[in-house]
Amino acid sequence: MTLAADVIAPFDEAGIEAVIREHVETRAPLAIRGAGTRAGLGRPVEAAPLSTARLTGITLFEPSELVIAAKAGTPVAEVEAELARAGQRLAFEPFDHRPLYRTTGEPTIGGLVATNASGPRRVQTGAARDALIGVRLVTGRGEAIRAGGRVMKNVTGYDITKLAAGSHGTLGVITEATFKTLPIAESETTLVIEGLDDAHGVAALCAGMGSPYEVSGAAHLPGEGGAPARTLLRLENFANQLRYRAGELADRLRSFGPAERLAPDDSRALWRSVAQAAPYLGPADRAVWRVSVAPTRAPGLVALLRDLALAHVYDWSGGLIWIATSPEGDAGAARLRALTRELRGHATLVRAPDAVRAAVGVFEPEAPALAKLSEKVRAAFDPAGVLNPGKMHDRRA
Questions:
Q1: What end-to-end distance do the CA atoms of the chain give, in Å?
Q2: Which of 159, 206, 286, 369 falls 20 to 30 Å from 193 in CA-CA distance?
Q3: In the predicted model, is pLDDT for residue 152 greater than 60?
Q4: Is the pTM for the entire model greater than 0.85?
């Protein structure tokens, strides 16, 4: 891997510790990164870049125990390839941000954990956080700590493993992660119902998820450019089971219209595009929001944003809405967040110019009590405030 000359990239955990201690002494901030494929996520951080890209390698793999561990700079693709050889996978379907940001390189395990990057199968198996059972990280004190292990277990005090997932490098530099894995499904199919509007499409998704047929993907793609809308429900397991389950599910959903069944390869290709989201959101200069709300409220929210949303896609049975807006002004932040808050949801600005992300914030503003608690947790791990300062929230506000 080629790294820019200004990137600090130690070869081991001890080197990470040394760099952080040096920056604590001088109170000089650090911008934590892996391979940089998710660099556009979060508020801009002006600081010396510290990369884990050289911390590579799978450190533990026990197929019989369904456990794998890898250093933070290990490409996600390398871990997935090793698992595939044993007939296993990371069940949460890691989300790849490269199509959204038009970045190159290979997403790393550390970046996956730091952003809790989870794809369509999260609706069935949970997020990256739920599969993460152990983590090593170097705190803002320059101390390496280990949390969790090779099996699921209860903990006392801080659940550091869960805290690390989605912390965006603000609590510590992740150096290693351990995951619980699952077997790869023998086959899959997707039921496709065409022509539904958003309300009926999400209703069909909810009906499918409420069925006993173990739906592992539920997305609604509004029609664009004259193409019909498509409502997608994925089923995975043994081929002989899928024939029965797909037939029963199609029968249950017959009031929404006839359902086409996709062949396994066609189904996999379709969900790869759904997992990327970007193919359905239009040009790369648009701002992109990731909105979480109760599925039954999602179509109503989008209807209220018709003049703001340039494109949108529903995933997670409607519980996740990708919305593209103009990057001008606040990218629609004030109006979108006000409406989302009324529905008890939250919105994250996933893609926008640096100036917009710095001005309006990226993550949902925290309530005062929660902000105070978050600051206390952050101070316990990084008292000098040198790790990705301001990456998640502007603490000067």
A1: 38
A2: 286
A3: no
A4: yes
